[in-house]
Specification:
disordered C terminus; mainly alpha; globular; 2 strands; 2 domains; MFS_dom; transport; transmembrane helix; transmembrane; 497 residues; MFS transporter; two-stranded antiparallel ribbon; single chain; 16 helices
Length: 497
Amino acid sequence: MTSPLTTPAAPAPEGRWTPRLWGTLLVLCAAMFLDALDVSMVGVALPSIGSDLDLSTSTLQWIVSGYILGYGGLLLLGGRTADLLGRRQVFLVALGVFALASLLGGLVDSGPLLIASRFIKGLSAAFTAPAGLSIITTTFAEGPLRNRALSIYTTCAATGFSMGLVLSGLLTEASWRLTMLLPAPIALIALVAGLKLLPRSEREKDHNGYDVPGAVLGTASMLLLVFTVVQAPEAGWGSARTLLSFLAVAVLLTVFVLVERRSAGPLIRLGVLRSGTQVRAQLGALAFFGSYVGFQFLTTLYMQSLLGWSALHTALAFLPAGALVAISSTKVGSIVDRFGTQRLIAAGFALMVVGYALFLRIDLDPVYAAAILPSMLLIGAACALVFPSLNIQATNGVEDHEQGMVSGLLNTSVQVGGAIFLAVVTAVVTANSPSTATPQAVLDSYRPGFVVTAGIAAVGLLITLTGLRPRRTRQPSIVVARSTVEEAQPDRVPVRD
């Protein structure tokens, strides 16, 4: 199937990228950079926000959770909307809304309005993320060109996250409002550049109408799932409220699956999940981001609450991991070409497990170079290998008209994994909270949480290893479509001798 994008976006002969193609990629990278930047900056600013606006701890939580709720709950809808209404159009409109919400967040003087602006930003990101990823996968031909583009694209997330930590430490010293306002001008510049550079795309011509019931059920189930997980630590995992909410999620998802199986134009074509490669990519995304978010949460508490480090000091401690990802960005694509996604994901998860395990050596008077830096470098190397490889694996062998759907599904796995496993780690630490809060006792209560993050990464490794079983003959995976049987491309690119 040919891409619905116009000729100017096509790669130059012999694999060289034209200036316009570079410009397209940079605009898309800017949106991904902003998503990660926004997530990391707000955490450091929360104490100042609470003091200035006189907000309680539970209200402050919703400044973070509101973004996660909008982002994780609407990704499936965002991905399919990009396929049906045009990727360029959806991306640009959502980016414009993101800029306006950033401006609103920096100017409000009310907690509820700030939370509303965060929800709107998360909603906007739920449309820009799958639209941007599907523009890349339909613009760059599958293989070395796409692998290189995706490695650069996903690196921008790690770079944005790392820079956000440092910038938030600096900007919060002046005013927390600057952390909210900073994304606005960057988003506007990317929007203007996108209007000029992004290739025009068509709406899907052969779709069988809009799956309104599927959209409502899918969005409602994801919103309720994220909301339930975020609130579970506060309400209690065994409380009637939490259990009833999970039951409602199960009912909604069951009805959603039944609707999708009968729909002529489903929000998610369930046939794509019959591919073992696709399932491993989605489960890998859950484990990868879930383990990292839990680790970062506990490490931040350890550094600031127990060691007394400043926000900037803490940000600089994380910086080597992000810097390693940024430096390796141009190399990961060629490594994927050589070894394939499955081996790199397995290697990355192995590095994560070792990095998390080494971090268990921490004490109340750590030597950074010996106790913390090795873990940061191992985790940075793992992120450099795993994140781009997951994106490549999930989108390889998928038809152009379903790239938005698969991109939305992958991003949903990332966000839901982060929300679920962060809540699990928080619950484990809370359950081990000491009656006498001495520094050593608090540190001991953190250790089971670190063990859980290592366990989550180990599960991701085991899932990935199931795709490395030796096979005598390479068999293409079969994906069952609505009325035909389509052959999906192999789960990895050929290995050069």
